[in-house]
Design a protein that fits this description.
Layout (H helix, E strand, L loop, with lengths): L16 E4 L17 E7 L5 H8 L1 H9 L6 E5 L2 E7 L1 H53 L6 H7 L5 H17 L5
Helix pairs in contact: 1-3, 3-5
């Protein structure tokens, strides 16, 4: 199953159900031969993401439905449809549809919260890495390859303060250079 991709960091809308696929209902409804329970297919408001599908099909959804008074109802995902088995239109109209909508919204919000947390962690790691790389680059730029004679000449009277300040800055960078990370 394909997953919907998000653009520019915005979440897809909360997952919900739009309408019942009338063509998928048993042809014998409203007759003497109509089944008491059957599968009703409902169309999602958008394609569910992989993590949402896993949650819909998971044990928590089964427990949620059983606790809500629908222990025999089962759900399956088929592309952009939710197949609601062992139910009927009256049961859906009288409360099951609301319970399913609540569960889908809860799942969608939970998945989006996990995605936001993962994105924040990734952003933090990238910012820390960027700072580390900048520190390494600054330390590398502070390295000079001069002869001993050049160093002695720069340590001549009047330049000692500059050399000491440079050495202090280099020592500070060395301490910040990521040791122990």
């Amino acid at each position: 199953m394909e997953t919907q991709t998000r653009t520019s960091g915005a979440h897809a809308a909360t997952l919900g159900l739009g309408s019942v696929l009338v063509g998928s209902l048993p042809a014998s409804l409203m007759t003497d031969n109509a089944p008491d329970r059957y599968t009703v297919e409902a169309v999602f408001t958008r394609r569910p993401e992989r993590d949402e599908v896993a949650e819909i099909l998971g044990n928590e959804t089964r427990e949620f439905l059983a606790t809500a008074g629908y222990p025999t109802v089962e759900v399956r995902v088929s592309d952009r449809r939710l197949e609601i088995a062992h139910t009927n239109l009256q049961e859906l109209r009288d409360g099951l549809s609301t319970r399913l909508a609540d569960r889908l919204a809860e799942i969608s919000d939970g998945v989006h919260a996990k995605q936001d947390a993962a994105a924040a962690r990734s952003h933090d790691r990238a910012a820390n890495e960027q700072a580390r790389v900048a520190t390494v680059a600054a330390l590398a730029e502070s390295v000079t390859f001069t002869t001993s004679r050049d160093t002695a000449a720069s340590a001549a009277p009047g330049t000692a303060g500059t050399v000491a300040a440079d050495r202090a800055q280099i020592d500070e960078w060395t301490d910040e250079g990521g040791r122990g990370r």
